[in-house]
């Protein structure tokens, strides 16, 4: 699992999102300077883009103008936060996250056969993104829009960075799923050994000490993940929701520009699907952790209810259930998909009513 993350981080350093794993113990001054240059570049390019888009904004109804302005600003601030987070603010947390993952993989026997699938998902997503982007660029060129470069090229760069950020999240969440799943299997094996071996009481209890340690380390890893990425995830969800609202409204109210409608809806759908996949990955982590919690409770209730050592084990597991809290606004689970979708539909209905 770490090998795949190492490849992602290697490319991530060029986008200023993450340092490579080999740079964890080096001075961060170079990466800070590089990130600062990227911030200046993005800020300048976005300012130029907004200047050229100003005339378009005032052609919309006020509510639609607000949606598109917020869409552009949320994309910029999301990318800005990605450039600032690890190099400037969260470097220690990032090092702690990687060290925890290394320690977990040294302790557990990780057997993940889906790394090829992860690479395939990434390649397919990137290819789809560039197919849609190039198709959209071609349509704009056919319209002979002289300001296309000034308006939208920086958006393409920002969306590519956002797509890479989603890949990083996908890899990390996939690692968490594998860790919790492997730990659950290890826990089940320890329970079986506890019930069926004739070891001394002390030897039996010592079999669970490793489970407690890994479980606590995993909880610390999830907390660190939330600390680093929660605001970036929040802004990206906000942006994709606004993007989906704007493009769906455009699709529902446009009749004579079918090709633009197809590319716009496809673009929004691609990123919305990414949000859905990441949400489901978070839910898979919670599901695997919940299975271990149920095993611990069953162990306590059926066999060792009054045993202090088992009580301690169950307490550690029950009090360290993972949660993906996004900027303290909400926690991600499977229901997040429904809540986001319902809010998008509600807002689109409101926009359509304003037009009528």
Helicity range:
over 70%
Give the percentage of residues in beta strands: under 5%
Overall pLDDT confidence: 83
* Strand runs, count: 2
Q: Helical segment tally?
A: 11
Most strands sheet = 2 strands, antiparallel
Summarize the structure.
The protein is mainly alpha-helical and 356 residues long. It is built from 11 helices and 2 strands.
Notable traits:
elongated; single chain; mainly alpha; Gustatory receptor; 2 strands; 11 helices; 356 residues; transmembrane helix; two-stranded antiparallel sheet; membrane
Can you walk me through this structure?
A two-stranded antiparallel ribbon has the order 1-2. The longest helix is centred in the middle third of the chain and has 49 residues, at 148-196. It is elongated. The chain has one domain (2-355). The model has no long low-confidence stretch (mean pLDDT 83). It is mostly helical and 356 residues long. 82% of the residues lie in helices and 1% in strands. Helix 6 (148-196) runs antiparallel to helix 8 (209-253), helix 6 packs parallel to helix 9 (258-302) and helix 8 (209-253) packs antiparallel against helix 9. Strand 1 and strand 2 (330-331) form a beta hairpin.
